[in-house]
Design goal:
This protein is of the alpha/beta class. The chain has 26 helices and 30 strands. The chain binds NADP nicotinamide-adenine-dinucleotide phosphate (NAP).
Length: about 850
């Protein structure tokens, strides 16, 4: 007997359920199998949201309930064969009706107890098990859903119940002895002795699988997820990370504690006690053998097995002369933390006993401070103990391997390699078992530290000079990666010398898929294959990359970007949400690089927000800047003809645009009129004194694919003839050109003397799409001068412009720890 467990991301859509049913069908042909399933991807969160909404009388719970019903009913239509559909529908309707009743009850009493919450949550797994069984039946495999509440008995500790192993094992054995069909068992849920529903803790489906495996003396328990087993390090941060063929239970526990959350830790106990191997397999790559977890892992010649990390922790330090040689200080300190239910990630104490340093999650910092200061109130008053020192934005790195204890010098090697790579270690902890060496580094140096340690302990995988250069690049997350601008960013960053795309984020509809399957790739160049392999995440995922390029809609960017900046990321945004904020640079690197000084005024400790102007504004202001410097600007009138790609995808319908022009683009005229004044304004070290110019704009959408055309009429404050103006444009360059930034065009402005220039089709790709082409300079009877310019809206006006802004920000080190990678010598 083998037990196979499939998590929510493996069964997030009907397509994925069918794919999983195919895997189960193949496995069931060769072996006796028992299947455990989680709720469909995202459903448990929705159930919690609905219960919370009902408890506070928020009617949104009805909307969520409707959404759940629609999603499961349409999955039933897609998955169940014609013969089984009526029966499947009636089963899922019964569960959904019960769910509606529960929510109604919660809304009436205005409260959702843990007991009620468990019963609400149980609906997710009960529904998915019925639908997975239906998909198997439709494939001709005899299968049936099994409600684990009839098998697993627990105490009444709702939310995290403890299992009665003896009774549960008996029931499991009795049930499986009778079962003739493949059992699709609900993960996560159970019952107490009063027949009330209980749950086994978040991630408890893994535990259910281990319980079944232990009870049935299975030959293996397989956790099917969407990664290639347990990796030697986080592949988003370490380019050379590889799948570990084997691990011991202890190594798995250490790696999972420090971030490698592939298996729910309590799963290990029943597996270990009953000597059952755990296998971590990938539903997206079923041919791959994955990672095998056993009592003693098979050695592979490396003392270090894996390196994991937690990328956001706070370091707290209690110190004082009154602590030296005084017994019981540590007991009181950790007792105070325990009373407030604060979990301590790492502890380190110098032998002088003058200070104790410990790490906690940032959310626990305030509670820890209050608890510790109250505990040591008397000592603090008398000056024996100082105020708790709190520092944030650190990462804990754990170097894990059972064989480390038999080989001298492992710790020495870790620290010397970090020293050679300029990584400062702030705290160290090592248990006497030497299974795990943990160290705390600045969060910004996490990727560098992980790569340096990985290269040192897996030298045969250590990259060549080219690979080292790749590893030293700054990891980038793209928000809105599947959209028009996101795609351009991904294409532009292929082979970028400083940045490398490690995370791609889009909406729920794309999440969980490989990027290549989620995106409708619209560019003429091929998709970079390594990005195609990345799994798309939602905004809920914790972003690891220090640099975030945002191509989100303004409504999403509004709340998300400040949160990321507060978490220490440098966010470069294309959205309009923060452009006009007084403390946010609206940057065109050739025009106003000094505006990056505004970042000091931002409320974030380490991160920052930098914005890229509106796509038409960028071309316009680049053309205005040399004229402003040489002659001074008067009034400016602009008429734009903007490309269809500026409206995102699918944007404006072809029926609206072909043979037509749409003389309105929401908010665009206001942006052109206000943004130019901020960008051309003077930064006095505190704020921007906006430029004293008047811009009047009229914006039109035209049937051009890419490239915005802007017709400009303007007055100048001092006399200038055409030659003077053309010379000002032609000789213009800025800091990006002087610094040789990777995305800077050689010449940002090109004047074309042809009477037919500029045209979007001919000129949008000037300077790889980063230069603005100007033409048709001539007298204007009203304002003095007029001309036409073309700039690429999704390159210079969005993706390329944002990347150049990111390069400028990194070159100026606006965020601590983010600097251009050093050139790698051969
Ligand atoms: P788009 O083609 O419509 O793309 C929108 C992107 O946002 C998609 O990747 C989409 O993912 C993602 N998304 C939607 N809802 C989401 C959610 N709830 N969570 C996470 N991601 C979500 O738009 P675009 O043209 O690329 O424009 C993006 C931003 O850049 C906008 O603020 C726009 O004003 C600005 N901008 C655009 C241009 C231009 O020329 N296009 C120029 C300058 C600035 P799914 O594919 O999964 O839906």
């Amino acid at each position: 007997m083998r037990i196979l467990k499939f998590g929510g991301s493996s069964i997030s859509t009907p397509d994925r359920v069918r794919h999983v049913a195919g895997i189960i069908a193949r496995e069931a042909e060769q072996n006796n199998v028992g299947i455990v399933v989680s709720a469909f991807g995202g459903i448990t969160d929705l159930l919690i949201e609905a219960a919370d909404a009902a408890a506070i009388g928020d009617d949104r719970y009805r909307v969520i309930a409707r959404e759940l019903r629609e999603r499961h009913e349409s999955a039933a239509e897609e998955l169940a064969g014609a013969e089984g559909l009526v029966a499947v529908r009636s089963k899922i309707d019964a569960i959904l009706d019960e769910f509606d009743d529960r929510l109604h009850g919660i809304s009436l009493v205005g409260e959702c107890s843990l007991r009620t919450r468990d019963s609400v949550l149980s609906c997710g797994e009960r529904l998915s098990s019925i639908l997975v069984a239906a998909a198997l039946e439709a494939k001709g495999v005899a299968a049936e859903a099994c409600d684990a509440r009839n098998l697993i008995l627990t105490d009444s500790n709702y939310g995290n119940a403890r299992v009665d192993f003896e009774v549960s094992f008996e029931r499991i054995n009795a049930h499986f002895a009778e079962a003739e069909r493949v059992q699709i068992v609900t993960g996560f849920i159970s019952r107490d002795k009063d027949s009330e529903t209980t749950t086994l803790g978040r991630g408890g489906s893994d535990f259910t699988a281990a319980l079944l495996g232990a009870a049935l003396s299975a030959s293996s328990v397989e956790i099917w997820t969407d990664v290639d087993g347990v990796m030697s390090a986080d592949p988003r941060l370490v380019t050379q990370a590889f799948s570990l063929p084997s691990l011991s239970y202890d190594e798995l526990m250490e790696l999972s504690h420090f971030g490698a959350k592939v298996v729910y830790p309590p799963t290990v106990r029943p597996a270990r006690t009953h000597h059952i191997p755990l296998l971590i397999r990938n539903t997206l790559n079923p041919g791959f053998s994955g990672t095998r977890i056993v009592e003693r892992s098979e050695g592979n010649g490396h003392p270090v097995r894996g390196i994991s990390s937690i990328n956001d922790i706070a370091l707290l330090r209690l110190e004082g002369d009154g602590m030296v040689g005084v017994p019981g200080i540590a007991k009181r300190l950790f007792g105070a933390l325990a009373r407030r239910e604060i979990s301590v990630v790492l502890i380190s104490q110098a032998s002088s006993e003058h200070s104790i340093c410990f790490a906690v999650e940032p959310a626990s910092v305030e509670s820890a401070r209050i608890g510790v200061e109250a505990e040591f109130e008397l000592e603090r008053r008398d000056g024996f103990v100082n105020d708790l020192v709190i520092e944030k934005d650190f990462s804990v790195i754990a170097v894990v391997g059972e064989a480390m204890s038999q080989i001298p010098g492992i710790a020495g090697k870790v620290f010397s390699v970090l020293g050679e790579n300029g990584v400062n270690v702030r705290a160290i902890a090592q248990g006497s078992s030497e299974l795990n060496i943990s160290l705390v580094v600045d969060r910004r140096q996490e990727a560098r530290a992980l790569n340096a340690i990985h290269d040192a302990f897996f030298p045969e995988l250590a990259p060549s000079a080219a690979g080292r250069a790749a590893a030293s690049k700054i990891p980038v997350a793209i928000l809105g990666a599947t959209g028009t601008v996101g795609q351009r960013m991904i294409a532009w960053l292929e082979d970028h010398p400083w940045f490398t795309v490690k995370e791609v984020i889009a909406s729920e509809a794309s999440a969980g898929k490989r990027y290549r399957d989620a995106v409708r790739w619209l560019l003429p160049t091929a998709m970079p294959p390594d990005v195609g392999d990345l799994v798309v995440q939602t905004l809920d995922a914790s972003v690891k990359s220090p640099l975030v390029l945002s191509a989100l809609d303004a409504s999403l960017a509004g709340p998300v970007e400040p949160e990321l900046a507060a978490n220490g990321h440098l966010v470069v945004s294309n959205a309009g949400a923060h452009r006009m904020r007084a403390d946010v640079p609206l940057l065109i690197p050739e025009v106003n690089p000094d505006h990056l000084g505004l970042i000091e005024k931002q409320p974030y400790q380490k991160g920052a927000i930098v914005t890229n102007p509106n796509c038409s504004t960028i071309g316009l202001v680049l053309a205005l800047k040399p004229l402003a410097d040489a002659f001074g600007l008067g009034s400016i009138n602009v008429v734009t003809m903007q490309a269809a790609s500026g409206a995102g995808f699918p944007g404006v319908s072809s029926l609206e645009l072909i043979d037509n022009l749409v003389p309105f683009i929401g908010g665009e005229e206001e942006k052109l009129e206000s943004e130019a004044r901020k960008i051309l304004g003077r930064f006095d070290g505190h704020c921007i004194d906006t430029a004293d110019i008047t811009v009047s704009a009229q914006c039109n959408r035209v049937a051009v694919l890419d490239g915005h055309t802007v017709c400009v009429s303007l007055g100048l404050q001092s006399e200038a003839n055409s030659n003077d103006i053309i010379e000002a444009w032609s000789s213009f360059s800025g800091q990006p050109q002087h610094l040789g930034l990777p995305s800077a065009p050689l010449k940002p402005l090109i004047y074309d003397h042809s009477p037919l220039a500029p045209q979007p089709r001919l000129h949008r790709l000037a300077g790889r799409g980063m230069a603005v082409t100007i033409g048709r300079l001539r007298p204007c009877a009203i304002l003095g001068h007029k001309f036409v310019l073309v700039s690429h809206n999704t390159i210079r006006g969005a993706a390329g412009g944002a990347i150049l802004a990111a390069e400028m920000s990194v070159a100026q080190s606006v965020v601590a720890g983010l600097a251009p990678p050093a050139k790698v010598e051969n």
